[in-house]
Amino acid sequence: MNDKDLSILRHSAAHLLAQAVKQLFPKTILTIGPATKEGFFYDLVPEKNFKDEDLVHIEERMRQLSRQNIPLTHKQISKDEARQLYEGNKFKLELIDEIPGDTVGLAEQGEFYDLCRGGHVASTGDIKHFKLLHISGSYWRADKEKDPLQRISGTAFLSQEDLDAYIKLREDAIQFDHRRLGKELDLFSFHDEGVGFPFFHPRGMIVLNELIAHLRKLLRKAKYQEIFTPTMLSDELWRRSGHYQHYKDNMYFSIIDDRSYALKPMNCPGAILVYKNSPHSYRELPLRLAELGHVHRHELSGVLSGLFRVRAFTQDDAHIFCTKEQIEQEVTDFIALVDQVIKPFGFSNITIGVSTKPEKAMGSDDLWEVATKALENALNKAGKTYTIYEGEGAFYGPKIEFGIEDSLKRVWQCGTMQIDFFQPENFDLNYISSEGIKERPVMLHRAIYGSFERFFGIILEHFKGRLPFWLSPVQVKLLTITDDQKEYAQTIADALFEHDVRVEMDETSDQISGKIKRAQLERVPWMLVIGKKEVENKTITLRDLDGKQEFGLKLEDIITRAKNEMM
User: Fold this and answer.
1) Could you write out the three-class secondary structure of 211-238?
2) pTM of the full predicted structure?
């Protein structure tokens, strides 16, 4: 599929949507309607708010217009002519004023016209495979202080097969929404008493702790040292680090002993204070300080989204203090660490981007060149394919980002390594070089999961609730056919427990079919079915989540197999 062709198609579909709306609801005021990565939308000011049932009529009108095969044309007109066309539409008038030059582009299809830079299919007949998805609220220029609008979103593809595949993925995303799964599997919850703050239940904590244990094991091998810094620190620190200027509207403040404090939105300043607590020699570098830091950010209620966007979360953060000569090796080690951490989750497609020096940046060109080359060289040595994002680095250093594509074909940005020249200068960090003089270290900020909460939500949807054996809160469920087998089943449960297998026994007197169904709904990977025959032969029947059964297994077989499934 050609991305440019798809973008042109979706841009044209947005115009088709606007034409259908204007025919059905003539008093609607148009604002803007671009193509997006997922499809297209148009922001509108309706005479009366649209309802979901209106989408059916709008989509049908779009199909009628498509069948009419109306030619799409484009021309340049004077700004004065454009202002006359849009007299009374303050949104279009604002856009006209902002467009450079004396003319603006105008797209036309039949009686419909719209401001446009161009880039369309030949006719409405080329727009065949589309679907309207939903109505949502928005604001003019995405500014909540400006006019409220209604957004109609849709998608379009070059073939019906691609559209059908997208709709299937979308249906799966709704069916396997992590908020729904979290409730079904008793993993976590949200409450009005703490909007935006997740409550993790015992089973959810098992998953979190397994994620942490997996990471900590690899961090120890990679020679990281773990620290823990306060959740609340003084205003002066946040002002000096620059976080106050950038994050003050998203920070929580409190006055203690007539002094202003803030809950940390980032972990960096705490790690810096740990580094500054004692002098350092070049022999100590690189110094890798890892922290599972709990941070708070005051997100607007409208953007909160389950575990994906919360007001408090734990970052798998680390800050590495090194010399500029050590940057490349640290990036190389980081790439290997990302591979090791992510491998058990089975993400088949990982995208990588490198953001380079922006126009306004601190640090010398030489330092930027060394840092950027270090990122690229490390990726090349690791055999990784990556994209360069020219000029998109932060002012304080270049960055590498990892995106993981889940089973629903969505890409999530998780792993990052940011090179930072600013904070070492800002906090006067130094180390004693081999020549006995003070030198400025480079600071590397890095994360792999990103946040445990968000990553939890990602893998829950990626696995569609069926977490792998090592990560499942309940790994084995003992199911007896009658109560007569419970004593034997208990000996099996006790033995598995002693080998650190997370095992439960269904204590109900329900029929075996009911017990199996309940275990399947709980997404338990293994069900051990015990009947009269199993008791007599001292064997076990293993049933997996897909219904496959193995008969005549010994307890030792189950224990060995379980250990092999563990991380």
Assistant:
1) HHHHHHHHHHHCCCEECCCCCEEEHHHH
2) 0.84
